[in-house]
Amino acid sequence: MMELEQSLRVQAVPSKTNWNVILAFAAVAVTTQLLWVTFTPITTQSAQVLGVSENAVGWLSEVFPLVYVILAIPFGLLTDRWFRQSVAIGTVLTVVGGILRIDEHFTTILIGQLITSVGQPLILNAINKVALLYATPKRQTVAISMSSASLFLGILLAMLSAPLLLAQFDLRTVIIVQAVFGVAAGAWFFIALYSPGGGRRALGTMGNMGTLGNMGNIDSGEARSGRVSLREVWSNRHVRQLSYLLFVGFGLFIALTTWLQALLAPKHISDVAVGIALALMTAAGMAGAAVVPDFAMRKQKGRIFIVASLIASLAVCLYVLIGVPFWIMTGLLMIAGFLLLSDLPIVLTTAELLSKPNEAGTVTALLMLFGNLGGIVLALFVQILMFSSIAAVGVLVLAAILAIPLATRFPAYRSKSDAS
């Protein structure tokens, strides 16, 4: 294993972990998700304020996965060639999109959402790259976990804060508070990124730097010899395997959070109860994404956690059909969320171990693309089959069952904290 890892990992190594850049980046990642989910928990009220239909308000969130699917790969390639420029542009687009929405007119808000959705892949594709460039080998799993958990924190903040602010104030206040958060996060990240130690001067070296291009210049667009071939990246069977696993894992989470309320409606469970359960599921998932991956990678237990997440998802699906006391359902949702959302940083860390440094952005883009596709495809299937709860839930059960054999072959690699 060590020989294979050494042959794959010829890279620039930070002399120390730059937590300021990593935390600031995580704050921008929070912003992307906060802006994405803004209107999801307040769809009906937003439609009334903006004078449009609920379906129209739905598009304010739906544009994000659609734009991501289109731009993920080309923006991943850009991230690998011009890291700092790409992530800086993504931050600017995120902040500008959030500010534009203050106009509180539907068309302007939609434009703001579109601008932010274009910036989102430039941020999300950089998760592995930030860990690679700004964290020491022993801290890269933690850095990836923090960035991944920040995505779920953004969703949780939106789900909790938007209804509360709207109830106490108005929609404009919701939008202004989120815009201020975005401006603060963006300013912090720019200061951290372009301050002394925020760029390539924080990097040491390891190995033959000429093999994969000049990694010291990777953030300045000078890594011409390190151009990435999408075909070469996809030819890596581990990348394909991890992509399929994220397709199912993300798909299950998104489908459950999107349609759980409708699936449980025949069992006379209130919307408030379902909303609380989903918030607890997301909170548990955020905790899982933050604490599980480092342990899983150090102990080579990633395979066990991914298989367990699929089994937990199966249990949730079956209990949705059977019907149980809702407190049991809530507990199952929290367990499934804890495990499912820890899958993302486990997969991203494993991908970072198995790919070349100059491929980090492209590999992350592929993985996140498949995760988003899984959410779209599985949620769409559930929506089409909603006339029958058995059929709708059966799609999710089938997806989880088919993924288990693939999960049992998950590559068992240690994080570099043990390998070094």
List the helices and strands and how they pair.
Blueprint: H1 2-8, E1 12-14, H2 19-36, H3 43-50, H4 54-81, H5 83-100, H6 106-124, H7 127-134, H8 140-168, H9 171-194, E2 203-205, H10 230-234, H11 237-264, H12 271-298, H13 302-322, H14 326-354, H15 360-384, H16 389-407, H17 416-419
Antiparallel strand pairs: 1-2
Helix pairs in contact: 2-5, 2-6, 2-8, 2-9, 3-4, 4-5, 4-6, 4-15, 5-6, 5-9, 7-8, 8-9, 8-12, 8-14, 11-12, 11-13, 11-14, 11-15, 11-16, 12-14, 13-14, 13-16, 14-15, 15-16
Q: Would you kindly provide a written description of the structure presented here, covering whatever features stand out?
A:
- With 420 residues, the chain is mainly alpha-helical.
- Helices cover 76% and strands 1% of the residues.
- Helix 2 (19-36) packs antiparallel against helix 6 (106-124) and helix 5 runs antiparallel to helix 6.
Task: Quickly describe the structure.
This protein has helices at 2-8, 19-36, 43-50, 54-81, 83-100, 106-124, 127-134, 140-168, 171-194, 230-234, 237-264, 271-298, 302-322, 326-354, 360-384, 389-407, 416-419; strands spanning 12-14, 203-205. By secondary structure, it is an all-alpha fold.
